[in-house]
Amino acid sequence: MKTAIVLGATGGSGQVMVSELLNRGGEVIAFGRSQRKLKALIKEHDNNPKLTYALGDIFDYQTIIEAAKDVDVIFQCANVKYQEMKTKLLPLGESVMKAADALGKHIVLVDGIYVYGHQVAKGDEAHPHQPHTKKGKLRVEFEQLIFNSKWKNAKALIVRLPDYYGPTSQNSYLQPTLEGIAANKTSIFIGNLKTPREYVYLPDAARMIVTIAEKDDSYGENWNIPGAGLISGKEIIKISRQITGNQKMVIPLTKSTIRFIGLFDEFMREIVEIMYLTKEGFILSGEKYEKRIGTIPKTPFKEGLRETLRVLMAKEK
């Protein structure tokens, strides 16, 4: 893979994909709507000559075609807001696949685990797709769209991440907790503090995703991207306090609390149906990756949290 384009390059997952691709010596095109953010991203990479940007709209496939015509792989990291998922998720999928098909490109789509619903078996790629939520059912439709036989020329794969964290993270469930601790302010934790849950460190995820994308026989499939193990919110807060020295209160938000807040906040209202994951968790199996790709990178939580909090605290200064 000599050249790649990252759609949604200034988002949390998009930024780490850009970094990982550059680390491997490839040429990267950062694609997005905001010239200001794209220029800032290039500046963060010290104006690396291998990093350029293209302005465009993820919902306008013609702009993607124009930007991606000379690349080897398209990485689709753009997403839609929870409250806009019903109306925008499938059009997004249609747009990126239309562009990839017109160009005959490989395309990698970053997605989550809502398609699985409650965990009823080993968390591998064969886990039943039996979602009980609106978002989960939409994600199943999204997957069916991506792997639809109408795309004659595109080669697609989907990578599925659990909850995540990292220096570039922006909208994860853990973000308000770490931002509050970094700022030495009272913060919140979404869900049960005692439930052991899986989190993937975004730089680890990027390494796995690019490695998968480099192999031609990876396409046409789903791939799970597991984290470094299980950890509770209580443990995350303890480690974060040790790293920062900040001891301000962290308030856990239960489903009932979020439902109440949702009466006044559209985004929080959309979180309610996903709260089952904060209570039950879902553990992804990495057996397929280990068997066909190799060793799973697993940055220890203390190391990943230290780097994440270092970046967040620097932003506070």
Automatic annotation (TrEMBL):
All copies of domain NAD-dependent epimerase/dehydratase, residue ranges: 5-225
GO-annotated cellular components: cytoplasm
Pfam family name, one: Epimerase
SUPFAM superfamilies membership: NAD(P)-binding Rossmann-fold domains
GO MF entries: aldehyde dehydrogenase (NAD+) activity
InterPro entries named in the record: Epimerase_deHydtase (IPR001509), NAD(P)-bd_dom_sf (IPR036291), NAD(P)-dependent_oxidoreduct (IPR051783)
Protein name: NAD-dependent epimerase/dehydratase domain-containing protein
Native organism: Oceanobacillus iheyensis (strain DSM 14371 / CIP 107618 / JCM 11309 / KCTC 3954 / HTE831)
